[in-house]
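Re: duplicated header lines in exported structure tokens

Our pipeline writes sequence and tokens for each protein into one text file. With two proteins the header for the second block appears twice in some exports. Here is an export where it did not happen, for reference. First protein block:
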Amino acid sequence: MQTILYKANTRGNANHGWLQSFHTFSFASYHNPERITFGAMRVLNDDTVAAGRGFDMHRHLNMEIVSIPLSGDLEHKDSMGNQTVIQQGDIQVMSAGTGIDHSEYNKNKDREVQFLQIWIMPNQRPVSPRYDQIKINEHHLKNEFVQILSPNQEDEGVWIYQNAWFHMGEFTQEQTVVHKIHKEENGLFVFVLEGSAHAAGELLDRRDAIGVYDIAELEITAQSDSKILLIEVPMQF
């Protein structure tokens, strides 16, 4: 087992007033040569956007872009004609491919919006730009992971052009789950959204993460009531 620990207080931080962003990997003005990627994952930004503010129209190329709202309402518009609002309980994906322009705004004038934006490097290029947005399975039980993303159009969740799987779950204190890796060449990134959990010999608190590879499965135990995101990606791509 190989591990890389990402404590919340070691992330890059950009405070633009209207935007508070924490960067797990090098992004914009934050550059850390030891934190460029975890396998095929290039970006994991933890963003809080002030009421009524947001990102103007901008362009992406050849990247799988996944947005997961944590609270509030995020309004999306793009050059393919999509105009939607994503909320907590949704997951959104864009295959930027040959090029897509989009904007993201806090729809509300009286409260912040919080969301994760994750970039995964694709295994096919060029591809036609694509957009999808779904509700995460609302009927899954506590103390288990629900799949929210995969490489397969027919599977649960959204899909992307990469051999990657995302799972999310809520766990009660001292609950243990064993998560099996889909492909032996993949690594697993464990990100604690809320609460705390033990994984790979480390205690992870809120917004801490650990990347683990050279494993077939990983045991995770909630130290407190917790919400956890798992991101499985190829380590070589």
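Second protein block, exported in the same file:
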Amino acid sequence: MGPRLHVEEGKLDVSGAVFALDEGPSRHVQVLRMQPGEGLRVFDGQGAEWQAEVTEMGRKVVQVRVLHRIQHDRELPVRVTLAVGMTANDRMDTLVEKATELGVHAIQPLLCTRSVLRLDGERAAKKVAHWQSVAVAASEQCGRAVVPRLLPVAPSLAWLQQAAQANTLDGSWHARGVLSLHDAAPVGRWLEGLLGGRGMRPDLVDAQASAREAENWCFFSGPEGGLTPEEEDLALSCGWQAVSLGRRVLRADTAPLAVLSVIAAALEA
């Protein structure tokens, strides 16, 4: 099978096509000391994956030929967005990596009132680009052909208001949960409510369903120190459901991963 490498969208559109890998993937192939004729897999991050082979090893660029498309589906039956208060140091890198492995569809980094990491402007854009590269690398490793999207950093209160308006207009999210310590439903009960107590719905687990047909879910959790009463109250007033993760206190980078794990376990059981 060989290594899996992410390539630009649009290059994987026809069998037999020969194209040059970008510098990063080319370097990866060179480090592995691959030779012409050896196989590898390439994917575009949008769901298309192809078997390919090395045709030429240049000094800086590696040429590959597309052979045939690989059909598999490793995505969750629903598209889950994690809206998270940005965590400090390298914890956000780990959150992006692990969330990608667990099947997240998108990650919305939020600047919350209690956020330790304060980013805006060019610094924020650079961080988002870095986190996107972390998601690409994690997708290569875990076998996903879809790379989660890292959305631009946004202030939490403004994002909540905008998200509420968008959801009212087009019903973009079928389920919205917010991590809360007050009058919150356990995460298992929250999921039971979403599924109507009838077990898995066939349309959610149909392996042939396209990404466009999947439901959109979102879970919102805060940074170190949690959400402020203002942030939590605004979320609840906009229709988010309060969700609890149990009796233990989880770190800001652990909580959204715990929710995603429970969702994946329930939907893929």
